[in-house]
Amino acid sequence: MRSSRQSAEFAISRARDGDERAGQAVRDFARGLASGLIPVVNPLDPEMVVIGGSLSSAGDLLVDPIQELLDEYCLYPPKVTASGLGSECIMLGAVRLALNHADRLLFTPPA
Fold first, then answer.
1. Which pLDDT does position 70 carry in this prediction?
2. CA–CA separation, 53 vs 51, rounded Å?
3. Distances from the Cα of 62 to the Cαs of 16, 75, 103, in angstroms?
4. What pLDDT score does 81 carry?
5. pLDDT band at 58 (very low <50, low <70, confident <90, very high)
6. Which of 9, 22, 60, 111 has an alpha carbon 20 to 30 Å from 83's alpha carbon atom?
7. How many other C-beta atoms can be found within 10 angstroms of the C-beta atom of residue 67?
8. 62 CB-contact burial (10 Å; exposed 0-12 / middle 13-18 / buried 19+)
9. Cα separation values, 111 from 41, 68, 104, Å
10. How far apart (Å, rounded) are the C-alpha atoms in residues 67 and 94?
11. Closest C-alpha to 77, from 55, 107, 104, 46
12. 8 pLDDT tier (thresholds 50, 70, 90)
């Protein structure tokens, strides 16, 4: 049995290869994700929504349907893009946070 991640990667791969049913499944997933984003995007009004983690590998297969739905339902639709960091984004963010903290501790003069 496949994990959720394996199933998603399989569907994305098949959609890229032209499988219409897989393409429709990915589009449906993207629209569902966008529907969940609308209640967050409208009140917060971000300039950009970044699709990160392992979902970022789907790129335009997710970005385009999400952008279309946000354009339709958001007062000020943000730009939707896929992260270039892939599944390493969480680790890289944690390292950046630790480095920022170390920088403040080491190089900020005491008040």
1. 97
2. 7
3. 12, 21, 37
4. 94
5. confident
6. 22
7. 19
8. buried
9. 38, 50, 12
10. 28
11. 46
12. confident
Span 18-29, average pLDDT = 93
Q: What distance in Å separates the CA atoms of residue 12 and residue 6, rounded to the nearest whole number? A: 10
3-class DSSP assignment, residue 82 = strand
Number of other residues whose CB lies within 10 A of the CB of residue 52: 18
Task: Read off the pLDDT of residues 77-94 as tens digits, 9 standing for 90 and up.
Answer: 999 999 888 778 788 888
In the chain, DSSP assigns E strands to 48-51, 79-82
Is 68 in a helix, a strand, or coil? helix
42: exposed, middle or buried (Cβ count in 10 Å: 0-12, 13-18, 19+): middle
Amino acid 57: pLDDT: 85
Both tokens assigned to 8: 């998603």
